[in-house]
């Protein structure tokens, strides 16, 4: 039996980009395809934030920013929607008043979506959602390398005594044995810390750090080489907090820090993941109430596009 070709986005030469389905990149819904190789799923949740809220509206905003995405990625010579079936799985509904229940729901729903081998690109939501996703992945893959793009370490212990927040997911993940402590990496870290102890604690948890300033000193090519050396040898989970970008490029986020990456630097770094065993990814902390002219939503949509292109090339390579 001949394999069915993937169903791609709505044809923009027939339906204007501001019309058509409100899915990511105007792709089909998951119930409109027989099976998805990759599902884009939203988690509209921001109960774990410590400063500015609004990330619960992130999934819709990123989908709106994705309307201009086109089928061919010339930077990678990839057709992310033509060589794999990508579909929009809608949003996971979680309890906004019970953080513990929300984490359990995300784990359960992500596991169900992944049960037939579908890979996930998850759109948050705040960074708390990374923990239940890693729990789900670790049950299949064992400890995974976490490639974490962020202005912040997100390995603090507690906030106001609470162990589960958007600033603690990777400490909990390390403590639970979900991450590969020899291959995990923070990218784009910058800004003030509580003390030097933050960095010392982080190193014990299994992360190396590439700072935002390293991009200025070393350049993207050198950064990508360091990244690939660290990640090679096993499964990789990519977690992109949009505040890794400078507020000039992504103002719509909850905890902005000056001195961040440009969108060009981030997209070029993500392209360096081709050939690595990427098993899933998220894009988090997009807060539409603080955005201007869809800058942040468009940047996040392009992050998703590059990640989908990486998955497509990796799948084609077998």
Descriptive account of the structure:
The chain has 318 residues and is α/β, with parallel strands linked by helices. It has a single domain, classed as Arginase, Chain A (3-Layer(aba) Sandwich), CATH 3.40.800.10. The protein has nine helices and eight strands. α1 crosses α9. The two termini are 20 Å apart. The model has no long low-confidence stretch (mean pLDDT 97).
User: Strand-residue fraction?
Assistant: 15-25%
Major sheet size, sense and barrel closure: 8 strands, parallel
User: How many strand elements?
Assistant: 8
Which shape, going by the Cα principal axes? globular
| Percent of residues in helices | 25-40%
Structural class: alpha/beta
> Which architecture would the CATH scheme give at its second level?
3-Layer(aba) Sandwich
Top CATH class? Alpha Beta
Q: Give the averaged pLDDT, no decimals.
A: 97
H-E string:
EHEHEHEHEHEHHEHEH
Q: What name does the CATH topology carry?
A: Arginase, Chain A
Q: Whole-Å distance between the termini?
A: 20 Å
Radius of gyration: 18 Å
Number of helices: 9
Q: So, the CATH homologous superfamily?
A: Ureohydrolase domain
- Name the strands of the widest sheet in spatial order: 2-1-3-8-7-4-5-6
Low-confidence stretches: none
Number of domains: 1
Keywords: Hydrolase, Manganese, Metal-binding
Cofactor: Mn(2+)
GO molecular function, one term: agmatinase activity
InterPro entries: Agmatinase-rel, Ureohydrolase, Ureohydrolase_dom_sf, Ureohydrolase_Mn_BS
